[in-house]
Amino acid sequence: MSSANRTVDRLRPFTTTIFAEMSALAVEHDAVNLGQGFPDTDGPASMLDAAREAISDGRNQYPPGIGVPELRHAVARQQRDRYGLDYDPDREVLITVGATEAIAGAVVGLVEPGDEVIMIEPYYDAYAAAVAMAGGVRRVVPLVPDGDGFRLDRERLAAAFGPKTSMVVVNSPHNPTGTVLSTDDLAEIARLCVEHDVIAVTDEVYEYLVFDGRTHTPLAALPGMRERTLRISSSGKTFNCTGWKVGWVSGPPELVGAARTAKQYMSYVGSGPFQPAVAHALEHELDWVRESARGLQAKRDLISTALSDAGFVVHRSEATYFVCADPRPLGVDDGIEFCRTLPERIGVAAVPVCVFTDDREPWHHMLRFAFAKRDDVIAEAAERLRRL
Ligand SMILES: *Cc1c(COP(=O)(O)O)cnc(C)c1O
Q: What EC number(s) would the UniProt record show (predicted)?
């Protein structure tokens, strides 16, 4: 057998990721890794205790296919308390192996081969891979600069909807830009979904991590949307436990059922003892999350100032773990090349934003920096950025 790539055509574009390459370079040059989007501190202590307890208590076998009852109830309660969204924990909530499996399950369970799936560019790479696995066709609609932040290109969005559109994937708060979509942008998405009878899948894994007193509005809370939206979230980013892979999807029974059918043969179930621990965290540790979001906002300020002092144009990050910066004032306009040289040059790693896009041109120069890191790590990165 030859050593050529044997991956099927439809998945071949996803063979390698820039994250692996950048992380390897970060290790090689002992760089501060602001490329990867995970926190370097643990979540709430009582949640970690609850996981240890669940293991000691023998909760180590297959959990129920739809997830343990206390977590489904906690997820339903959280959505009712926070957004006034009512979901039946027994029929309208499904626990998944992270948001990633929720996305894959929703897409594979609901998209027919040849169906078009609209996503906002730059997009999280898992959406494109899931659509490819389903044999769907992706249509991208870009975010465009708006002051020092970004907004949706609503004309392009309206033009992307057509007879073959079956789904739109909406990620707000948005990775990689840190944008919280405005109420006008959300209203336009909702209007188009209703007009064209399209399903919305919303990736809201950063729902709690919004800054500067902003609020997050789920698309499902808009008129006409609850019945056509699968709302996805996850414990990983909210509670600093990205390795636990406990996520969930909420929506009307027929949509959750479709995702469940696919999910059943992806993992069947997962994260057994971590499910009750996350239920505990949702019930008892939302104050911890509020503090964490406040801390992230301060980290956003630290890294934004450091980037700006180093000569970047820094875009406004309103939420998430990420901020985008434009290095063109430094005489750089190739983001990929720049990211390849940064670890060796100054000992900092970032990722180029264009790897999250189909149309690379508008994003060619842009870099994403992750700031969910300890203050001393960010301070070290700030120090090194001065070498530019
Ligand atoms: C991290 C991330 C995910 C993956 O969540 P998991 O729960 O770890 O699977 C999904 N969407 C976005 C936008 C993310 O940043």
A: 2.6.1.-
pLDDT at site 335: 96
| Beta-strand pair 246-250/229-234 | antiparallel
What pLDDT score does 4 carry?
Answer: 74
Does ligand 1 have an atom closer than 6 angstroms to the CB of 170? no
The pLDDT, as a whole number, for residue 3 is: 61
The atom number, within ligand 1, closest to the CA of 100 reads: 9
Residue 239: its pLDDT value, please?
Answer: 98
State the distance from the centre of ligand 1 to the C-alpha of 112, rounded, in angstroms: 24
CA dist., res. 218 & res. 231, Å (int) = 8
What lies within 8 Å, CB to CB, of 35 at 6+ separation is: 19, 22, 23, 26, 339, 349, 350, 351, 368, 370
Residues of the chain with confidence (pLDDT) below 50? none
Q: How far is the CA of 319 from the centre of ligand 1 (A)?
A: 14
What pLDDT sits at residue 2?
Answer: 56
pLDDT attached to residue 102: 98
Q: Considering only CA atoms, which of 384, 351, 382 is closest in space to residue 369?
A: 351
Ligand 1, atom 7: closest residue by C-alpha = 98
Which pLDDT tens digit goes with each residue over 156-168? 999 999 999 999 9
Per-residue exposure over 124-145, b if at least 16 CB sit within 10 Å of its own CB, e if not: bebbbbbbbbbebbbbbbbbee
Q: Residue 78 phi/psi, 5° resolution?
A: -60, -40
Q: In the Cβ-directed half-sphere of 54, how many Cα atoms lie within 13 Å? A: 22
Give me the sign of the Cα torsion angle 295, 317, 336, 310.
negative
Distance CA 204, CA 232 (A): 6
